[in-house]
Recover the amino acids of this structure.
């Protein structure tokens, strides 16, 4: 319990009147930042305001910790290599319910809240959907009052900053910590140590029992940095704990004294490399090693932390699984299964069977992709050299597991080989996804189709052996950031027409359905959409100097650039429109603005070429006076959470055009839907559930289904057949290969064209005709504005199930066994 005096301090810190916020702002500007108001920059003012908001969060945080402790709650621990949080300031103010008061407090001083929010650097600690999902889930866990802790890595450099130069992606390092991060609190007292390398040996303990110990060849310190995550207007604050790698001894005096100055700091540099950058390119051996080091580092720190916290409140670790449930966000933290075994056996003295029972009842594993290249497999020579003790443990887990399988499926040698955690080949590997499956009580995919494909394909043998452990948990996104914060005019219209219940219960949006027939309401709906388009247009004008036409249909595809997401299919369609306009076969084209955004992995050449393709198509289309009347193509550089917040509300049409069976779920589709965009898409990932929810008449469907693709591939897919069959496709592809669209350059897109003609693993040519058909329907539909607005309203009205609150409730009920409010 807090002392009376501290209770008073907490209460004071939580005060939110305009006067109090203004005083607090000036106090922080004076004492924390050290600046006079008149001469302070926006960045300095932003820092002062961030501290004002942080004080409010801290007050709630302390109270949350106190209350959770008293209730001795069960805690969800969410392990993720990525948390793509997005800017904190406006989101935290929204959740605390203090935006208006803060605005007034600043207005009174002649300071614009908007300007301060603009200078906040975004913590880009994730690549895309997986990291953003973790952030949405943190928001929902706090909002639902679920005691939770997110654990991850505090990368010094997040996802690179993208510049587009002459149509090509250029990467710059992301120095998000350059001016300090007011949202984090370092907790050096809770640091821990992580071992690497060396060897193992046996010894006899005090009871003369033979045990193993690990003699590492180096040790790295993990320092936690905590970011409070406030729930939506409920005074609950959870913790996101990110680990920074540091040297145990940062400076070697003995080496320094010999005159080797570089040598003296070498170990510091080497140690700190671990949390330096988000997912380094893992093409090289060193890159691979570093990635494994990162994964082990943050997982080990997190598990040590949980055990430490556990023992602060409980007598022993025997009841660890009662107090903690640990979710593995994809395969990256799956080494945690071997690590918890090691900690329980080697450090806490448990026997193997008990340790295994605890481990298996602790973990849940969420798979986020079927793409084989993303299912990590570590070659023995790398794994064994870094984590010798874990290799031993995994071999033992595997031996016991395969004995069980052999009893279940006698005389099936092939099955044993398929299910083994150890992959055989020219070199043995540890299959991390299998380790996650074997060591978890629950395994789930992230959309119905994806879970089905896991069960029937990738993890079929495991599904056959223990089907009860598998379930689906379709992804969701938080309506606080993706609707309330991103689209204030729409949020205000919703509040006015259906009340505020949807903030916490998104299913309440169905109340909107009754307004589709109301002309006055439709008009207001359209008005908010135009407002969002104008806001985006202003942003693009400001950043890129390009003027958009808000009256045109905004057709948006924003997500990581990847062949399976098929941004090139979209680009080929634009070229098709271009050809049709030029040769006069397309008379009443709907004016469209095609918006693209997304980053390509620095080492992924084809994805970078796709960016170049989009920009080349843009140059061609935008420069042609005849075509420009109808088409405008814009590649918005440096796509991020905050850029997304501007694009989702402004879109009329949402492009969800991945090859069926490849996109595990997709979450952008949900953000578009909530904001009233209508989707054009394949039967892939969450599209299927979106279409079911919104009704097939409100979704532009095209393309082959996953089973159809399998069937075609089985027979032998010949992309050229589709080229030959479609005159329009021929015109487009010929134009690209003959240099018609590229000022005579025939080589520029050769690698892409060669792939499309000969492999086309993602069925771009096979789906092209049907895509252009669906696109033309969408274009026509947009001309009937009343009907389009009805579709738009229905998209929002029926998006309730895609709230991350729904998803988190499912995890809590089915996997975590934790109550929600
Ligand atoms: C991604 C999938 C998306 C999915 C997100 C969140 C990885 C490994 N997977 O389809 O590609 O929406 O995870 O589940 O980033």
């Amino acid at each position: 319990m807090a002392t009376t005096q501290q209770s008073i301090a907490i209460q004071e810190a939580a005060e939110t009147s305009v006067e109090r916020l203004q005083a607090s702002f000036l106090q922080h500007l004076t004492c924390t930042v050290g600046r006079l108001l008149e001469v302070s920059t926006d960045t300095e003012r932003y820092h002062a305001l961030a501290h004002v908001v942080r004080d409010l969060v801290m007050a709630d945080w302390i109270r949350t910790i106190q209350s959770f402790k008293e209730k001795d709650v069960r805690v969800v621990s969410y392990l993720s290599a990525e948390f793509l949080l997005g800017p904190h300031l406006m989101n935290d103010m929204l959740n605390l319910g203090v935006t208006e008061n803060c605005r007034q407090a600043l207005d009174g001083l002649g300071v614009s809240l908007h300007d301060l929010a603009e200078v906040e650097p975004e913590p880009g600690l994730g690549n895309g959907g997986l990291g953003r999902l973790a952030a949405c889930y943190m928001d929902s866990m706090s909002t639902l009052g679920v005691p939770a802790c997110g654990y991850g890595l505090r990368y010094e450099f997040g996802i690179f900053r993208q510049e587009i130069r002459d149509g090509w992606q250029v990467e710059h390092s992301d120095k998000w910590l350059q001016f300090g991060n007011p949202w984090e609190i370092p907790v050096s007292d809770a640091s821990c140590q992580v071992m690497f390398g060396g060897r193992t040996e046996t010894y006899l303990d005090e009871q003369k029992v033979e045990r193993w110990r690990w003699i590492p060849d180096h040790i790295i310190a993990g320092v936690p940095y905590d970011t409070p995550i406030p729930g939506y207007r409920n005074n609950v604050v959870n913790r996101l704990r990110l680990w920074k790698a540091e040297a145990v001894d940062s400076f070697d005096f003995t080496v320094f004294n010999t005159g080797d100055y570089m040598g003296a700091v070498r170990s510091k540099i080497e140690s700190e490399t671990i949390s330096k950058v988000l997912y380094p390119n893992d093409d090289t051996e060193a890159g691979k090693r570093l990635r494994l080091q990162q994964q082990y580092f943050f997982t080990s720190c997190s598990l040590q932390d949980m055990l430490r916290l556990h023992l602060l409140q409980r007598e022993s670790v025997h009841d660890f699984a009662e107090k903690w449930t640990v979710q593995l966000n994809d395969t990256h933290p799956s080494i945690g299964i071997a690590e918890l075994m090691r900690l329980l056996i080697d450090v806490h003295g448990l026997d193997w069977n008990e340790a295994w029972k605890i481990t298996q009842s602790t973990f849940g594993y969420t798979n986020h992709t079927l793409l084989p290249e993303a299912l990590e497999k570590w070659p023995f020579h790398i794994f064994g050299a870094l984590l010798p003790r874990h290799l031993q443990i995994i071999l033992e887990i595997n031996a016991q597991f395969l004995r069980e399988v052999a009893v279940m499926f006698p005389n099936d040698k092939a099955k044993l080989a398929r299910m083994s955690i150890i992959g055989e080949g020219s070199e043995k590997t540890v299959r991390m996804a299998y380790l996650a499956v074997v060591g978890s009580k629950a395994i789930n995919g992230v959309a119905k189709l994806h879970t089905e494909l896991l069960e029937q394909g990738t993890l079929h043998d495991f599904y056959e052996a223990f089907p009860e452990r598998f379930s689906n948990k379709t992804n969701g996104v938080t309506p606080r950031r993706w609707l309330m914060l991103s689209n204030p005019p729409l949020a205000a219209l919703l509040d006015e027409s259906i009340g505020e219940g949807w903030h916490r219960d998104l299913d309440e949006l169905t109340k909107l359905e009754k307004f589709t027939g109301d002309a006055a309401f439709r008009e207001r709906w359209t008005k908010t959409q135009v407002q969002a388009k104008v806001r985006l247009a202003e942003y693009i004008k400001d950043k890129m100097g390009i003027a958009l036409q808000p009256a045109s249909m905004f057709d948006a595809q924003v997500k990581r650039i990847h062949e399976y997401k098929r941004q090139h299919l979209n680009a080929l369609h634009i070229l098709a429109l271009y050809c049709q306009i030029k040769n006069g076969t397309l008379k009443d084209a709907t004016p469209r603005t095609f918006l693209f955004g997304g980053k390509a992995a620095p080492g992924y050449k084809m994805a970078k070429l796709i960016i170049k393709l989009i920009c080349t198509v843009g140059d061609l289309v935008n420069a042609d006076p005849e075509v420009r009347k109808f088409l405008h193509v814009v590649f918005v550089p440096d796509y991020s959470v905050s850029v997304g917040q501007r694009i989702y509300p402004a879109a009329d049409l949402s492009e969800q055009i991945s090859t069926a069976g490849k996109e595990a779920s997709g979450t952008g589709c949900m953000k578009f839907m909530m904001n009233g965009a209508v989707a054009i898409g394949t039967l892939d990932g969450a599209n299927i559930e979106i279409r079911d929810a919104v009704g097939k008449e409100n979704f532009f469907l095209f393309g082959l289904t996953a089973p159809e693709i399998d069937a075609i591939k089985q027979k032998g897919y010949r992309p050229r057949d589709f080229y030959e069959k479609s005159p329009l496709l021929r015109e487009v592809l010929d134009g690209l290969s003959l240099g018609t669209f590229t000022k005579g350059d025939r080589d520029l897109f050769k690698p892409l064209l060669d792939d499309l003609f000969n492999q086309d693993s993602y069925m771009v040519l096979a789906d092209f005709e049907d895509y252009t058909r669906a696109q033309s329907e969408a274009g026509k539909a947009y001309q009937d504005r009343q009907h389009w607005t009805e579709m738009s309203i229905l998209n929002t009205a029926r998006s309730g199930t895609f709230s991350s609150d729904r998803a988190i409730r499912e995890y809590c009920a089915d996997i975590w066994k934790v109550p929600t409010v």
